[in-house]
């Protein structure tokens, strides 16, 4: 699955291998038959308790981290999605209207209470939650998690300086179910709940740290166990859980089988006997297995959406999984030659005006993508500040001293820093030429890059596109100093086949566009951006997010590109209760099969 805001996280939060789908002809195969049931929908029907549901994992996605404190290199969303089925976080976001809310009936805690001018937070755990060995879930388990990240923050993949745990001066356990946090200053309660408390995950202190050892030693020991992938199903350490599921099988190839935790005391107890998450080396292989009925919950390429009726005849419903995300091309402002170009606001604006997001969304992504308008989900911005306008882009470039030379490529004819000049660091005669490192394996992404390249070529901008595997792109497009050799390795980067960045419920920019942020891959730094981000963190003014979004959208710190659905899901008609959460979290405890007449065939 994708990368989430822990960067993840997304990134590095959470990114997914591309949909590499070939052979998409709709052979009839042996898939589930539509005549099994007479009503078709995501809910309803006569429930059948029990059964096994199999879900396809993204191509080349192999879950490999069970410890619910993510480590760098193990931050893919499919890891955290599985962890949360075993170890409940205090708060779990769910979609409400066009936004996400941390107020869910699945929450382990009541809604937090803020006091002392929003410098103190009090949280009370809900009654009755127990670990699978019968011990109650208490504030000591929450404090255990906090101590682990506090004393091992450099090893925690979600750490960002001055945020959690740095912004908590004191953790105070009031009683078995209530704890209080003393913060280092006043924060916007909506932001702190959605983007800080969302991390809090009680861990079984009595089972993992019975002797109350030094948190560094405990963390090191837990990490050693977390790297023993072959032992996830047998290691006693991971058998003490408080979520609705426990591990039945976890192979080194990435197949995970979960079964109900019979001691689970939450409101959403599982209906199925087992849920299996099945890995695939390629999307081709997943598609073939889906057509033959080998998975109950899989995915199809966007190009097949127009033929969704064929899948309905085969017994599936087709439902794009939309993400709370944005997608973009990263710009390396510290590259020795491209950096001076990319640091010119007018040039970034021109580059954005040449990306026909609407046409790309409709034609290349077959309607399964929507334009990205800025640094927050599109629903939070009133309009696209730079809709496709090649003529405006050409005028903008000409007004700043760019003129077509031999071969049609634009060259700087007015160097300097004046209002009509090319800009600081750009030499006379320098060509407007850039290179893009893009993830391989997706027909849609490849076609999108070729469309952008073609649009740039027509405007006199040369764009060289190089494709590499996703992990290579992620390992290359990282924050860098101008003097570092790695900073010369890339100018523009793309890793957004399934979305570049998945937000927590509050889509603030402290992880993405703040100076020095861990996922600020292009080294963007702007005092006004930092100021507006702080406003979203500190101020309760509902307009703070809009001001941040509109300002950064206009500044174009990255090039906004169509935001695709995470996947186009194909789900068996007789599998109900599937909720495709925009954060990519899973709730298979709500899944159930339905029957026709006397039972399922």
TrEMBL record:
Gene Ontology process terms (BP): peptide transport
Domain of life according to the entry: Bacteria
Assigned GO CC terms: ATP-binding cassette (ABC) transporter complex; cell envelope; periplasmic space
Cellular localisation: Cell envelope
Chief location bin: other
This protein's name: Peptide ABC transporter substrate-binding protein
Organism annotation: Streptomyces rapamycinicus (strain ATCC 29253 / DSM 41530 / NRRL 5491 / AYB-994)
Keyword terms: Signal, Transport
Gene3D superfamilies linked: Dipeptide-binding Protein, Domain 3, Periplasmic binding protein-like II
Transmembrane segments: none
Family, per entry: Belongs to the bacterial solute-binding protein 5 family.
